[in-house]
Amino acid sequence: MQVQNLNGVIAVAAGGEQSLALKSDGTVWAWGRNDVGQLGDGTTAERHTPVQVHTLNGVTAIAAGQAHNLALKSDGTVWAWGGNDAGQLGDGTTTTPRPSPVQVHNLNGVTCVAAGDNHSLARKSDGTVWAWGGNGDGQLGDGNPTSFRPSPVQVHNLSGVTAVAGGAEYSLALKSDGTVWAWGADDLGQLGDGNPTSFRPSPVQVISLTGVTAIAVSGEALHTLALKITSPPFAGIVEAWGWNFSGQLGDGTTVFSRPSPAPVATVSAAEAIATGTRHSLAVGARRAYLNVRNILVHPDIHHRRLFNLRIDGVVVRANDNGGNTGFQSLSPGIHTVDETGGMGTPLSAFEVVIGGDCAADGTINLGLAAVKTCTITNYDHVGGCGGTSICCEPGDGTKGCLVCSKPGKGCPGP
Predict the structure, then answer these.
(1) Residue 232: pLDDT above 70?
(2) Which of 68, 87, 339, 352 is deepest in the core (most CB within 10 A)?
């Protein structure tokens, strides 16, 4: 069902019972429950169609928690509205409700924000992370768990961060080296360090996890997803850890929890991930993968046999000799595979047969996220003789040399 009276949207966020949309003009719109002002329209009246968040423009990013919301403006400041019982709005108070945006205190130079259940996170341009709000399980990461902090504090011993995420009483950070760090509640292994405990008030590294490009957790969730980009065709691998009561880790089981990352079954070539409270989502890449393999049959050691392997007329691997292109990322649809003779190799000297996943004419129709391999077989008509022999009668079609000379001898006369 389409949301009414809403267009030009570039980003969305979902909270406990409220929804947000960021439009291309930098305004924010909201709808849903509004008992603590989480829609930001200056009232506490529930709204079934979008209303504009008051006095807020120039917004570049949004985040939604259980009953509070955050907006990052183009000037690097952060604004918040809604529930504030744990200081999650960061304005130095616990005044609630706040039905209109207030600025988070003493915070600038911010490049991304995230909202947990009742706490908030911000990553600054220098790669540090700052947090405020509920801290009963150490989810602010300042090493000193207390009931709450109504103004931002710096997360301990954490730098080089590129993204942050907030769950139910725990937090995560993705670093530029592809590692993931977590802190806060850990009773269900949601920190992924392999050693669950009640909580950890300072960051610990998620074990056995590198090459991560994105992390995902929602404000009420107790499980986390990580997206890893590896070499095709396995690009977009998703791993998960934490609570698994409803199978939200996607590993084919409902084992109660997992304290370390495990691959999500049957998911590859993903490009985006998201979590709910008891479910997870992955968006398949709008790509397909094709490998072209070159096969030599009856090769003759006496002459060159180099081939340029092409996809859609573009040389992907030049001067190949029985190798392959590796998986190439392509758009779904019809593509064509062929070859030309490489350096010093006349293609006319070979019988060329295209097969594998390709049709005989070299065409292939790649579906979304398909992983296919086509073969190009080159039959050498004069090949198949010993090292000191020469071919006296070439074969035809798929046959190699029909008559070879004796070792070290020339061909017999007529």
Answers:
(1) no
(2) 68
For residue 310, what is the enclosing H or E element?
strand 307-311
Query: Which residues on adjacent β-strands are paired with residue 406?
Result: none
Residue pointed to by tokens 């603590």: 36
* pLDDT over 80 at 414, yes or no: no
- Is residue 295 within 8 Å of 377, Cβ to Cβ? yes
- In whole angstroms, what separates CA 277 from the centre of its chain? 20
Range of the domain at 238: 9-284
pTM > 0.70: yes or no: yes
SS3 content of the chain, % helix, strand, coil (to 5): 0, 45, 55
Q: Are residues 241 and 315 in the same domain?
A: no
Instruction: Establish whether the linkage from the previous residue to 50 is cis, with ω within 30° of 0.
Output: no
Cβ proximity of 87 and 94 under 8 Å: yes
Alpha-carbon distance of 370 to 365, in angstroms, equals 9
Strands in 257-263's sheet, in edge-to-edge order, are 212-216, 223-228, 237-243, 257-263
Q: How much is the mean pLDDT over the chain?
A: 92
* Tens digits of residue pLDDT in 243-293: 999 999 999 999 999 999 999 987 877 888 999 999 999 987 778 889 999
Number of domains within the chain = 2
* pLDDT at 78 exceeding the cut of 60: yes
322-361: b or e for each residue (b if 16 or more CB lie within 10 Å)?
eebbebbebeeeebbbbbebbeebeeebbbeebebbbeee
Torsion sign (Cα): 386, 387, 391, 395: positive
Coil vs helix vs strand at 393 = strand
279 with 297, same domain?
Answer: no
237 and 322 in a single domain? The answer is no
Q: What single-letter amino acid sits at 384?
A: G
**Alpha carbon 342 to chain centroid distance?**
38
Residue 190 is which amino acid?
Q
Query: Do 414 and 403 contact (CB within 8 A), yes or no?
Result: no
Strand bridging mode 333-341 / 98-103: unpaired
Task: Identify the pLDDT of residue 270.
Answer: 84
Q: What tokens appear for 353 in the block?
A: 């047969």
- In 3D space, the residue among 130, 219, 122, 202 whose CA is nearest the CA of residue 163 turns out to be 122
What pLDDT is recorded for position 381?
79
